[in-house]
Amino acid sequence: MITQYDAFEIRCPMLGHPLTFSYCRSTDGNTPCRNIMNCWFQRLPVEQFIQDHFPFGTLEKLTTPPKPKMQSLLELIEKAKATKKNGDIPCRDVAQE
Ligand code: SF4
After folding, report:
1. Which of 22, 33, 70, 86 is the most buried (most CB within 10 A)?
2. From ligand 1's centre to the CA of 45, what distance in Å?
3. CB of 31 closer than 6 angstroms to any ligand 1 atom
């Protein structure tokens, strides 16, 4: 049952106040918080919980560290350059104005 741990409480390191597991498992309605493994692993069989109640691949997403911000930014710049080269989206060159 997905609600079996909902009443368990923890102090949230991101929000700075106590909250219940029900929030952690459904932050935006269907997606568990990306920190759920770190916050709950000592108190609940959270890995098994994720496998039992969320789509395949969710556990992998939660345990894969996020890309460094600089890497993400460089990827976005490369993608924008490629898009501009292909003429998909007209870009204004502010540097020439
Ligand atoms: S899992 Fe997320 S929302 Fe829940 S306590 Fe940890 S950081 Fe806060």
Report:
1. 33
2. 15
3. no
The string of pLDDT tens digits covering residues 4-58 is 999 999 999 999 999 999 999 998 788 899 999 999 999 999 999 999 999 999 9
Is 4 inside a domain boundary? no
> Do 16 and 48 fall into the same domain?
yes
Asked if 23 and 58 sit in the same domain, the reply is: yes
Cα–Cα distance measured from residue 82 to residue 79, given in angstroms and rounded to the nearest whole number: 5
Ligand 1 atom at minimum distance from 19 CA: 5
Q: State residue 85's pLDDT score.
A: 81
- The model carries a pTM of 0.71
What spacing in Å lies between the alpha carbon of 33 and ligand 1's midpoint?
6
13 and 32: one domain? yes
Closest alpha carbon to 10 in 52, 45, 38, 50: 38
